Amino acid sequence: MSTPREIAQELAIATLLEKVPIASTLASSFSQAGFTLALVGGPVRDAILGRLGNDLDFTTNARPDETKKILKAWADSIWETGAAFGTIAGKKGDVTVEVTTYRSENYDPQSRKPEVNFGDSIQGDLSRRDFTINCLALELTTTPPEFIDLFDGVGDLAKRVLRAPGDPDVLFGDDPLRMMRAARFASQLEFDVDPTVIDSMKRMADRITIVSAERVHDELIKLLMSPNPRLGLTLMVETGLANYVLPELPKLKLEVDEHHHHKDVYEHTLTVLEQAIALEHRLGGPNLVIRLAALLHDIGKPKTRELIPGGGVSFHHHEVVGSRMAKERLRALRFDNQTIGDVSKLVFLHLRFHGYAGGEWTDSAVRRYVRDAEDLLDHLHVLTRADCTTRNHRKAAALAATYDSLEERISRLREEEELNSIRPDVDGNEIMKILNIPASPLVGKAYTYMLELRLERGPLGEDQARVELLNWWSQNGPQK
């Protein structure tokens, strides 16, 4: 009867050969040159879990210059951006490979980057890795391929747990980003985290401050784009890691007393995130902007919280404050300007629907809603719907029906008026021609007036627009 390790080895080999047979040809190339080559880390883990992708990581005793020669002959293209860390990457067909020389790393406790030294054995290379489930290797240049599992990673895969191969304090002390990776893997794999790892994260959380914002940014995106970001975010909050990476999130755990009741904003936020993810099909699939907007939509509440005499709590203008805070946090995390602008805009607009109430908006108000959202209208639809977390089924159904009616009105007006590209009935050139004036600030004022008129009354037609413009000019033009 096969042991769990033997079963894992057979499964990993079978999955690898079935999905990426060219890995065998790469192994042959290294073997013929006199070097070893092993599939290592995440790809081995994912092969066992049956979720192997087309990005493969290998480790070898060949030095980077030798790896480069082999990959040049084997791959369609190669790149050397990681050469300083011993990594040469290449692509063949639709498979991307990274081949890294055995490494052993020394860490300066105050440094953001490790000092990389090349190692002599795969055992040493595996010993420096973060979690047991990533300390797996499949040596491909032996006959038959040799499965290497020094820390019972297969057992931890079976138990669905993240455990450190050694002292987690040393693990996180060496590279504090591994704490973010623990949160990310918890979300991606939906695994539990070993209590010793959690305790260490609580002790070491402040070490994350020596890690560059760019590296934190990359891990946070992977966490947020995982199947279950709640798991990783909860781990970050409970261990204190979020206090340094995303401090606005734990601050949503507002105190509640017996006289001033309100929703748990923290739990509400995580629920909104989950509900937004459930609606992402409306955006074409997983969407970083909507996930960030859902996560940050209420971060202005702690700063705007006011107790109402006699009971109750208000958060006036939290969307305005939250929009500004979202910009600041995303900028600190090195997000690009487009993402920052989109997320902060959605945070700013997320309460706009609540003015719709019983559906009494005028067509003018609907036009402004569309105009303000611009190309983020579908995102705003998703965020607004996700923001309903009431447990009162009748109230939730009423809100959904009301929003259905708003979307129907938008669709009708869109068909009638081309809402997606609302512009005045006359453009700047036509304004100058009708008023017989050169380019000047007055043209901009006239354009703004005509745009407001368009939003208020809908399409006017060329003749009526000319009349309205001339009437405005008689009241606002320069004195004769």
Overview of the molecule:
There is one protein chain. The protein folds into three domains: about 5-160, 2-Layer Sandwich (Beta Polymerase, domain 2), CATH 3.30.460; about 255-420, Hypothetical protein af1432 (Orthogonal Bundle); about 425-475. The chain is built from 23 helices and 13 strands. Helix content is about 55%, strand content about 10%. It is elongated, with a radius of gyration of 29 Å. Helix 8 (about 175-190) runs parallel beside helix 10 (about 215-225), helix 14 crosses helix 17 and helix 14 (about 290-295) packs across helix 19. Mean pLDDT is about 85; it is low at about 255-260. The chain is of the alpha+beta class. A hairpin with an 8-residue loop joins strand 6 (about 105) and strand 7. The strands form four sheets. Strands 3-4-5-2-1-8-9 form a seven-stranded mixed β-sheet. It has a two-stranded antiparallel sheet with strand order 6-7. It has helices at about 5-20, 20-30, 40-50, 65-75, 120-125, 155-160, 170-175, 175-190, 195-205, 215-225, 230-240, 240-245, 265-280, 290-295, 300-305, 320-330, 335-350, 365-375, 375-385, 395-415, 430-435, 440-455, 460-475, and strands at about 40, 55-60, 75-80, 85-90, 95-100, 105, 115-120, 135-140, 145-150, 160, 190-195, 305, 315.
